[in-house]
Amino acid sequence: MKALVAVKRVIDYNVKARVKSDGTGMDLSGVKMSMNPFDEIALEEAVRCREAGLVTEVVAVSIGVAACQETLRTAMAIGADRAVLIETAAEIEPLHVAKLLKALAGREQPQLVFLGKQAIDDDAGQTGQMLAALLRWPQATFASKVELSASGVQVTRELDGGLETLALALPAVVTVDLRLNSPRYVTLPNIMKAKKKPLEVIDAATLGVDLSPRTRVLEVTEPRARAGGIKVADVATLLDKLKTEAKVI
Q1: Residue-range domains of the chain with CATH
Q2: N or C: which end of the chain has fewer CB within 10 A?
Q3: Is 145 helix (H, G, I), strand (E, B) or coil?
Q4: Exposure pattern of 26-63 as b/e (b: 16+ CB <10 Å)?
Q5: Chain centroid offset of residue 76 CA
Q6: Total-model pTM
Q7: Residue 38 to residue 201: CA distance in whole angstroms
């Protein structure tokens, strides 16, 4: 059984993102980039499935510029057997990603596709669902527990009102949530081994996917600074201000 894991290169979650002076997007110059944390959890789960003997091969895939190879090397250091970069300089959207992953899935023929539930840069949370629809595969989103067998996968997912358990036939698409696992620490020996693992680069143009933009960013701005609070003399004054001045934003 082969597992395909999509990993995205994003601004590191410890870095405070900056908006370009002209308001056209985020300033990435000199900024530390890392693997999307949700994708790291997805990769960890795929590697654990392989270590349990349920998956025979884990393939990591990323879409973007050549620098994404660094993210893929990290994925192989975590435990992916090999990696594929679908290289493009285009500004890709969730639907583009889903279509490119569908094209790659047609070549790789995985039985299971793992993705993070969302990327921390755009917070779209759409790619997994779109991919499942394009492939016509069953899907389970926001997975907090995954139990894989040769015949299918049972996924416990988190909802606003509690937990839901789904049983899916394979092949299937699973997007993962934070509480699924804790990714392992990448060791130096594994980093060295990752340099020798195969990394294939595919030109996105060869996959027959139209990458023309479907949305247009008008402006990117910093969030409003929070105003300072005030102190009140007593509870009665507080209640009065909550009734007359407090606003729901």
Answers
A1: 2-244 (3.40.50.620)
A2: C
A3: strand
A4: eeeeeeeebbbbbbbbbbbbbbbbbeeebbeebbbbbb
A5: 16
A6: 0.85
A7: 23
